[in-house]
Design goal:
5-stranded mixed beta sheet, 27% strand, 285 residues, OB fold (Dihydrolipoamide Acetyltransferase, E2P)
């Protein structure tokens, strides 16, 4: 009697293609991705079944190299798929996946999902603002709290949802740690953007009705092709050293009362002509 492994191997062999009269099997199988360059560009992968012998799994990948490739091109189950819409998460080469077969037809494999294993463990830590803290994310380390959910790419880009009571937030972080962070800590409502070293940031605090744009190390430059307009009830401009205002043509100031004061000296230079006009002028009253 042939072994179960041999029977399954033969059912996987390409001589058993097609939906009509082909061998069938119900249930999923563990497989490894060996090719993710679909020649028809249909977002599919090919897999090998490590538990089968080389005799039944040898094949050729799309680049012409030998590999343990015996499956037909497998479609990928995703949380959303439609015309020009959906979630795009193509498995990597050597990723472990669960494979099922449409109506049990081995010529119509479907990737049901990806699996972690011993060599390819799940992430163990997560870093996020506002304190740039790093936390252990395994539910064992959390004592069963299950407070962190996130998506992390191969390069390290991370979208994280922090559900810890009193410290809720959402973090979108780049591989070099630049971050967009929505912070509801303590019932507050803040939207923050940080650079990789958290030396420059933008903070919007909705509960305090306050927006802060700050840099600890460099300059802030605001540019517009046409016009920059500031509107507010009171405007304060303060510098620890110097303030310089320069225009290519004209500066106009209008107000009800105007006061200019210097604690040391004042100098006015017209360059050409200076006109002082008022209903009354008092010099050194």
């Amino acid at each position: 009697m042939a072994s179960i492994g041999r029977v399954i191997s033969e059912m996987l062999n390409e001589s058993h293609q097609g939906r009509s009269g082909s061998s069938r099997m119900q249930g999923g199988m563990i497989a490894k991705v060996v090719d993710n360059v679909d020649p028809e560009d249909r977002y599919r992968v090919r897999v090998s079944f490590p538990w089968l012998s080389d005799q039944y799994t040898k094949g050729t990948t799309s680049d012409g190299s030998d590999s343990k490739v015996q499956s037909h091109w497998a479609r990928i189950t995703t949380m959303m798929a439609g015309k020009d819409t959906g979630s795009f998460w193509l498995p990597e080469i050597d990723d472990e996946v669960m494979v099922d077969f449409e109506e049990g037809d081995f010529s119509r494999p479907i990737i049901m999902g990806s699996l972690w294993n011993g060599p390819a463990n799940s992430p163990r830590s997560l870093k996020f603002s506002p304190e740039n803290q790093e936390v252990e994310v395994s539910n064992h380390a959390q004592g069963g709290a299950n407070d962190y959910r996130f998506i992390r790419s191969r390069a390290g880009s991370t979208l994280a949802f922090i559900d810890k009571q009193g410290s809720e937030g959402v973090s979108l972080r780049s591989p070099k740690n630049a971050e967009f962070f929505i912070d509801d800590t303590g019932g507050g409502e803040r939207i923050c953007m940080y650079d990789s070293k958290q030396n420059q940031w933008l903070s919007i605090e909705t509960d305090k009705k306050k927006i802060t744009l700050e840099t600890d190390t460099g300059d802030i430059l605001i540019k517009a092709k046409e016009k920059i307009r500031l509107e507010c009830k009171n405007l304060e401009v303060e510098a620890s050293e110097n303030i310089k205002v320069k225009a290519g043509q004209k500066i106009t100031q209008e107000c009800t009362n105007y006061k200019s004061k210097s604690s040391s000296s004042t100098e006015m230079d017209g360059g050409g002509k200076m006109v002082c006009k008022a209903g009354r002028i008092d010099l050194n009253p």
